[in-house]
Amino acid sequence: MTRSLAGLGALSLVGDVARAADAPIAITWRDLVPQDGGTEIEALRELGVVQHGQLSTPFDQEKSGAVTTDYNGKVVRIPGYLVPLDFDGTAVTAGLLVPYVGACVHVPPPPPNQLIYVTADNAPYEAQGLFEPVTVTGLFGTSAATTQLAEVGYALSADLIEPYS
Rounded to the nearest 5°, which phi and psi values hold at 152? Predict the structure, then answer.
């Protein structure tokens, strides 16, 4: 009996270690800008986020769109605003996570390193509107994609989308 209890204890410990390894890493939009991205990237790093109209030309967008691979394959947690792309009623199953209100609704969109393509097939989010801040948690990685709204540099498979608090 002692042997089976010890085995259960070891199994429990292994489970706790596995869950701890999957604990989400809290990241910010600034973390998505590589350290060696040039002068435009340095300007973005100082600001923390891109404001509407700060990058006004496609050339600026391209130069400042470099991505980082630091969080590839990691479970992350990041706040932002979810711009729905695919939905059923008010349940959003895919969208763009953006750093500020109105991004991608106005021209030009933020650079690719400030856009995350979020899929929420297993956890659709009941959106209250475009201007509702959310926090998204899930598996993260670089992923060049083109949507009808913008060029995107990252993808996140959401386990949880919840109102920002």
Answer: -120, 140
User: What letters, b where the CB count within 10 A reaches 16 and e where it falls short, cover 119-140?
Assistant: bbeebbbebeeeeeebbbbbbb
Q: Which two tokens stand for residue 74?
A: 């990691």
Which pTM does this prediction carry?
0.73
Q: How many CB atoms lie within 10 A of CB 149?
A: 17
The single-letter DSSP state of residue 73 is T
Cα–Cα distance for residue pair 109/50, rounded to 1 Å? 9
Q: Which letter does DSSP use for residue 94 in this model?
A: E
Q: What does the alpha-carbon distance between residue 40 and residue 19 come to, in Å, rounded to a whole number?
A: 38
Q: How far apart are CA 129 and CA 108, in angstroms?
A: 21
Write the pLDDT tens digit of every residue in 85-119: 998 888 999 999 999 887 776 657 888 999 999 99
Run of H or E residues at 136: strand 133-146
